[in-house]
């Protein structure tokens, strides 16, 4: 049984070897360094470092805010992608270019801009303050920053899927008596669900590791608005390299488990839709 497809171009061994070398130098070796450095700690020291109340509070904020931000982006990212693909309107190209701004802006610039706008005397923060809502220097500010940096991942992942979705399927569903909601739920959603889950996973993973834009708007208050990335940086500044890598290992393992679960869900949705069609 052939385990690789025939190609008229030679060089499979060379390209595979280069790929493995590149991945090892860029990904595998640096990540293995985390485990090697952490292994210098005793189990008691490791457990004490990763279960410190301040660290646990940062876990809850980091993963909770990342999840909320990714869910928000999944909903509104779909709306943005749908508008850009299905409608023509003045300034469409400008709106399309604005989606990529979080990619282009340095994260520190994004954090400063969001803090200035959502602070108590900012353009948006001042009206929110009048309503009793504090945006900047609160968990809400963290969610705002993570939503800002994660939106392009969902929009750019959904756009090709929506462009490949033929409107004739929707017209056929309508001609068979389906309502708009039934057409959306039974025709559109199953088709774009794999792409939507991919965008959600990318936005979620990006939010977990975000640092630059969050440290400004969060206020970095212990037990309240501290993210895990900030604690890792603080450990490094204190020359506690083993403690920093211990927290990083926990974040890495948790990210792997969550992303594995999302990939399984994505595979299930793709398999289910393929069986239906």
Helix- and strand-based class? mainly alpha
The averaged pLDDT comes out at: 85
The value of Rg in angstroms is 22 Å
Distance between the termini: 29 Å
Envelope shape: globular
Q: What order do the SSEs take from the amino end to the carboxyl end, as H and E?
A: HHHHHHHHHHHHH
Residue windows where pLDDT falls under 50 for at least 5 positions: none
Q: Strand fraction band? A: under 5%
CATH class of the largest domain: Mainly Alpha
Number of helices: 13
Level-2 CATH architecture of the largest domain? Orthogonal Bundle
Q: What is the helix fraction of residues, given as a range?
A: over 70%
Count of strand segments: 0
Tell me about the largest β-sheet. none
**Could you name the CATH topology of the largest domain?**
MetI-like fold
| Total domain modules | 2
CATH homology superfamily of the largest domain? MetI-like
Structural description of this entry:
The chain folds into two domains: 9-39; 42-276, MetI-like (MetI-like fold). It is 78% helix and 0% strand. The chain has helices spanning 12-38, 43-50, 53-86, 92-98, 101-104, 107-118, 125-130, 139-164, 167-175, 180-208, 212-218, 228-237, 241-276. α6 (107-118) packs across α8 and α8 (139-164) packs across α10 (180-208). The model has no long low-confidence stretch (mean pLDDT 85).
What tags apply to this protein structure?
single chain; 277 residues; mainly alpha; MetI-like fold; 2 domains; 13 helices; 78% helix; 0% strand; globular
């Amino acid at each position: 049984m052939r385990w690789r497809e025939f190609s008229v171009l030679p060089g499979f061994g060379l390209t595979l070897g280069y790929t493995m070398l590149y991945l090892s130098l860029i990904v595998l070796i640096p990540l293995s360094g985390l485990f090697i450095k952490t292994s210098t700690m005793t189990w008691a020291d490791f457990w004490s470092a990763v279960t410190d109340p301040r660290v646990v509070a940062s876990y809850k904020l980091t993963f909770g805010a990342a999840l909320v931000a990714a869910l928000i982006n999944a909903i509104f990212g779909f709306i943005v992608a749908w508008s850009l693909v299905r409608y023509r309107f003045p300034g469409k190209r400008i709106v399309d270019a604005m989606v990529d701004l979080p990619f282009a802006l340095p994260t520190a610039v994004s954090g400063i801009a969001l803090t200035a706008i959502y602070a108590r005397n900012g353009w948006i923060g001042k009206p929110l303050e009048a309503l009793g809502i504090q945006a900047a220097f609160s968990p809400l500010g963290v969610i705002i920053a993570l939503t800002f940096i994660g939106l392009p991942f969902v929009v750019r992942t959904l756009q090709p899927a929506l462009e490949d979705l033929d409107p004739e399927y929707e017209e056929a569903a309508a001609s068979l008596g389906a309502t708009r909601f039934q057409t959306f739920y039974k025709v559109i959603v199953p088709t774009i669900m794999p792409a939507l889950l991919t965008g959600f996973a990318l936005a979620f993973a990006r939010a977990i590791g975000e640092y630059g834009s969050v440290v400004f708007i969060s206020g970095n208050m212990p037990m309240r608005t501290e993210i895990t990335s900030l604690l890792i940086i603080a450990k490094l500044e204190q020359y506690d390299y083993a403690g920093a890598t211990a927290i990083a290992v926990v974040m890495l393992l948790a990210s792997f488990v969550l992303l594995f679960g999302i990939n399984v869900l994505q595979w299930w949705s793709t398999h289910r839709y393929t069986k239906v069609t």
